[in-house]
Amino acid sequence: MLNKHCEVKSRHKHRRAYIYKDIVIKEFDYLDDFKTELSSYKKLSSIINNILLDEGWLLKSPKVINVKSKDTHCIEMDCMPGDTIDNLCFNKQEIPWELIGKALRLFHCKAFKIYNKQLIYYDFGLSNVMCSKKNQIISFIDPGAFFLTNANQSNDVYLFLWSIFMYRLKGARIPLAAERKFLESYFLNTEAEKLQSRNLMPIIKNIRQIFSLRINQEHKKDSILKKIIYNILKEYFIITRALKAHMIINKLKC
Asked: Which of 124, 178, 180, 188 is the most buried (most CB within 10 A)?
């Protein structure tokens, strides 16, 4: 019997996730959802599995152990060590942001080499990455239905930066150097690329004052948030355009 205390929160009411004896169990009400999710996990595992990130650190993804599609559509996978980045931030844990940037770049390069086109993770945020400092493992999880969508890979970078911003608004303790470390490691292949990523820093620096705002009073929230979101969208649009230009110019050198 599944331990209900180990139920994992899901945004989808037609699917459920549990952890039982170090195994992640995902159940689906609809066969199409089950097939799509299973395909995404298999593709993710084929792209990244025990890739060396840095000295002692590995990049991993969940491996499908068993599938059932009789009474209940079910996928069983091994449980990745550690916790999701968003939970670690709320618990004031130190995050290796530079390794996440490097991991995303490796994922993009591997996907490009396998499929010969630019493909994105699509739903790449703090809740889709796990970290275990004890085991020295970074894991990518929950690839989702739109995994490996054919689009400019800078979209994943943008979504991760946006995720950092949104979790700051929710009260997560994320250092202001997180974006710089993430971006620099994503562009770390050459010194020229490292310099290019630093050119984006004034944009992020301009946003830091907004990040430090703590909105505590409900009556102020709407007007303040409107202004914040408007400015953030403008700044991140500039970042996205810069990243897209970089990808086109360098033709995704890996």
From this structure: 124
